[in-house]
Design goal:
Elements: H1 6-10, H2 15-18, H3 24-29, H4 43-49, E1 52-53, H5 66-69, E2 73-77, H6 79-87, E3 92-97, H7 105-119, E4 123-128, H8 130-136, H9 141-157, E5 166-169, H10 174-185, H11 189-196, H12 204-218, E6 228-232, H13 237-249, E7 253-258, H14 266-278, H15 290-300, H16 304-313, E8 321-326, H17 331-340, E9 345-347, E10 351-354, H18 359-372, E11 382-386, H19 412-420, H20 430-436, H21 444-453, H22 458-469, H23 475-506
Parallel strand pairs: 3-4, 3-6, 4-5, 6-11
Antiparallel strand pairs: 1-2, 2-11, 7-8, 8-10, 9-10
Bound molecules: tryptophan.
Length: about 525
């Protein structure tokens, strides 16, 4: 489901049988927004699910990919962490493909994203989600083998470097399966039900394919934790959220800020901080007592539970600190952490308070100790999201509607014909078009230029856009040019696929067909 697999997204009628993570939440997410190219449709993803707009990190990307520059990549989760990682040479990129059909121009976006990050120095991973295709889509192994090979050839043809990077099939990666098993211990069925709409009828292998995907996502960090980006379509966001959660659940320690000995949640911490600041913070001679904060809260906020906790703590002074909470730590690791903390500290049953650490320094220390004691130390994986392409016939792009998409294996002549037959957002008559201009933002053919045909050439993309909206460029000519470019792209790509055959044979991914 995804860019990786437009169909399940797009063919609503097939959804119940086809959706892997077939899903309450993903359904909401994908009600129908992907058809159009306007940003507004993606807005709900920002507000409802906490995906952040890519624009906000774009200025920090050095030589951004054209998909970033053109807003095709529109959202992210914690991509700034990956940018920091790229700057210090410690970063990874991973995405996966369900081998349910031929790779098409929608998948190319993800291939390009992986390759771009690899060229920026990230450890790169491309995986074939064959277990998922088998369990969630019911494909047989012969079909899977054929498609797996086709995906890998296109990824290689587009420039993935297998010497530097890693390609694997889920079914053949023992380490991924072992990690999936471990992650399964932290995942329960009701949670999968809540996220994916699974129920009592959902088969166990389907559930296993979910923890397998979780393991895929964390696999780049198995040897050593590092910032990792997962480029996907927004339909995969439920997976990303679960993976981020699991990454945290696997940690030995959790580090939070704290102000007093009792436990407070993050909202309460903010209130305590507000009270502490309002009462003079660290500037007063006399310490600020918990009961004073309770009084302030009583006057200024509505938080009866917190007020009660603060009153119970009475005269205890409020002092900002960091707290190391024991999550999954062994006794040895907990003791080692106690010993490693410098300066003033207080040791409690399940946590340690330290007074001379910033939160960042504390987080790094906790990770170090965790790793020394055989923990994973995972960073929450980051993600970037790209827009779905509009179908060539308007509406949705679907692999089951051949005219709506272009397969990377299509005969170049067919590619040419499909583009020439594509729907455009031109006006009814040439005369009107010259007068009013076309609606490039709504046009599947303009999208082809922006997402693929113009490549790195921003001038071409901009010229097509400008000429269209000011009425100089008529749809017929525009399509002819696009069709030529598509034909040339397919010819070139397929030549490179042939060249990549030998390379693929030499790799140890089994793709015998
Ligand atoms: N579920 C993805 C899809 O439907 C495939 C996938 C498996 C994947 N493992 C992954 C995607 C890890 C990104 C990261 O296409």
């Amino acid at each position: 489901m995804s860019e990786h697999d437009h169909d399940s997204e797009r063919d609503t009628d097939e959804r119940t049988t086809e959706m892997d993570s077939g899903t309450a939440e993903a359904d909401d997410l994908t009600l129908d927004p992907w058809g159009s190219a306007t940003v507004e449709d993606y807005q709900q993803l920002f507000s409802e699910f906490g995906i952040e707009s890519f624009e906000s990190v774009l200025p920090d990307v050095s030589s951004p990919h054209y998909l970033m520059r053109r807003g095709v990549i529109f959202g992210h989760r914690e991509y700034d962490r990956v940018l920091d990682g790229l700057a210090t040479g410690e970063a990874a990129v991973l995405s996966g493909f369900m081998p349910t059909g031929e790779p098409h121009i929608g998948h190319k976006l993800v291939f390009d994203e992986i390759i771009w990050h690899q060229r920026q120095g990230a450890d790169a991973y491309g995986l074939i989600a064959d277990l998922e295709a088998h369990s969630a889509r019911g494909l047989d192994w012969d079909e899977i083998d054929q498609h797996a090979r086709d995906y890998l050839l296109s990824l290689l043809a587009l420039g993935f470097d297998p010497e530097e990077g890693t390609l694997y099939r889920q079914s053949e990666n023992r380490a991924v399966q072992d990690l999936a098993f471990e992650l399964g211990i932290e995942t329960n069925a009701s949670e999968l039900q809540a996220i994916y709409g699974f129920d009592g009828e959902t088969d166990v292998s389907h559930m296993q394919s979910v923890v397998t995907q979780m393991a895929d996502i964390l696999y780049p960090q198995l040897e050593e934790p590092k910032p990792t980006v997962i480029p996907v379509g927004p339909d995969q966001d439920p997976h990303v959220r679960l993976a981020r959660d699991l990454a945290a659940r696997m940690r030995s320690f959790k580090v939070t800020k704290a102000y007093a000995s009792f436990e407070a949640d993050s909202e309460e911490r903010e209130l305590i901080e507000a009270a502490y600041e309002a009462l003079g913070g660290g500037d007063t001679k006399e310490p600020i007592r918990c009961v004073e904060a309770a009084d302030w809260i009583a006057d200024h906020r509505d938080a009866p539970d917190l007020e009660e906790s603060l009153r119970a703590a009475g005269k205890e002074p409020i002092r900002p600190r960091v707290r190391f909470l024991d999550r999954n730590a062994s006794d040895d690791a907990f003791t080692a952490l106690i010993n490693a903390i410098d300066g003033e500290k207080r040791v409690y049953e399940g946590h340690i308070d330290a007074f001379e650490y910033s939160r960042e320094a504390a987080t790094e220390l906790a990770r170090e100790i965790e790793i020394e004691h055989d923990g994973y130390g995972f960073y929450p994986p980051s993600s970037i999201y790209h827009r779905f392409m509009t179908g060539l016939t308007g509406g949705k792009m679907s692999s089951s509607v051949p005219a709506s998409h272009i397969s990377l294996l299509d005969d170049p002549e067919d590619g040419y014909d499909k583009v020439n037959a594509a729907t455009t957002a031109g006006r009814e008559t040439a005369e009107l078009h010259r007068k009013l201009g076309g609606e490039a933002d709504e046009c599947p053919v303009y999208e082809l230029y922006a997402y693929l045909l113009a490549g790195d050439d921003d001038d071409l993309a901009k010229t097509v856009y400008d000429e269209c909206v000011n009425g100089e460029r008529l749809c017929g000519d525009c399509k002819e040019q696009a069709a030529q470019l598509m034909k040339a792209f397919l010819e070139d790509h397929q030549e490179k696929r042939e060249e990549a055959e030998e390379l693929l044979e030499s790799l140890d991914v089994a793709v015998d067909v």
